[in-house]
Amino acid sequence: MKHLFIVNPVSGGFDSTEAVSAQVAQAFSGRDADFEIYTTKAPMDACAKIEQEAASGEELRVYACGGDGTLNECVCGAVGKAHVAVTHFPTGTGNDFVKSFGAEQTRFRNLSELIDGEVRKFDVIDCNGRSSINICSVGLDARIGTDVHKYTSIPVLGGSTAYVTSTVVNLFKGIREPLRVVCDGKLYYGDMTIICACNGSFYGGGFHPVPEARPDSGKLEFLIIKGVSYLTFFRLVGAYAKGRYADYPKYITHVSGDCIEIESEKEIVVNVDGEAIYGKKIRMQIRPGAVNFVVPANMKYFTAMPETAEA
């Protein structure tokens, strides 16, 4: 088996290649194993590298050393390949996907635990042909997530502050757009503020919209938030961030299912694990157990109730 460490040199606002290399060398000290450290050079380079390595047919374990975007690229390269498994060694800005594992998320920062970890089948979301392991969304939050990268490069606006800045800017641009939505066979039509499909439970720097969403459940959790006023939005956003969607059934519809289709008269941005794609017709559909994912051994997450997860 080969261990491939994919390092995003711009993730988290600094080049972590040297630090990751030192940790990898220490973790493999005394181990007889084949490993490679690869630094990406362009968007989707990680996916291309995995495709290249996987072509040999040798068992491959991929470590995404970066943020959620790096993890997404690695998942795109690994999805559907029985001999490839992927995991996350978080060095990025948000690192939202691993927050789904609650207090045990810190175990993903221990390379030895990942090297000795176990493989589990995780679901993915197919969003217009792009794979997602965490959350896809359209509407206000997708615009915020797309624009946040404009602010993370500003020294005083890194991390969570960048999300707040992007939120303020996009609020001034408007919070409603007309959409046609079909979810679980039911039609929703009119102005919408946010629509999200959850495979994981955290995104946007700590938002926790559907706490019960799990990447091994065989279903997706959808939230459809109708177009609301600014005043109502400010009342809802805190509850939405904390997973209290059930407190506002007048505005937020929750559906557990397999697929959602969204149509817009104009091109809209779609958040796919923090990365942006665009289109007028968006289809988000589950692919059950489509990716092998490495987790630290004997995690309590897989036996405990998901509501116990903490940011």
Task: Write up this protein.
The chain is of the alpha+beta class. 23% of the residues lie in helices and 36% in strands. It is built from eight helices and 13 strands. The chain has helices at residues 17-27, 45-54, 68-78, 111-115, 140-147, 149-152, 160-171, 230-241; strands at residues 2-7, 34-39, 60-66, 84-90, 118-127, 130-132, 135-139, 177-183, 186-198, 220-226, 252-257, 259-272, 275-295. Strands 1, 2, 3, 4, 5, 6, 7, 8, 9, 10, 11, 12 and 13 form a 13-stranded mixed β-sheet that branches. Helix 2 packs parallel to helix 3 and helix 5 packs across helix 7 (160-171). The longest helix is centred in the middle third of the chain and has 12 residues, at 160-171. The chain is globular and about 60 Å long. It starts with a strand and ends in a 16-residue tail after the last strand.
Largest sheet properties: 13 strands, mixed
How much strand content do the residues show? 35-45%
Class by alpha and beta content: alpha+beta
The arrangement of helices and strands along the chain is EHEHEHEHEEEHHHEEEHEEE
Separate helix tally: 8
Shape: globular
Are there runs of 5+ residues with pLDDT below 50, and where?
Answer: 306-311
State the end-to-end distance. Answer: 33 Å
Instruction: Report the radius of gyration as a whole number of Å.
Output: 19 Å
The helix content, as a percent range, equals: 10-25%
Write down how many β-strands occur, each being a DSSP E stretch of 2 or more residues.
13
User: Could you report the average pLDDT, rounded to the nearest whole number?
Assistant: 92
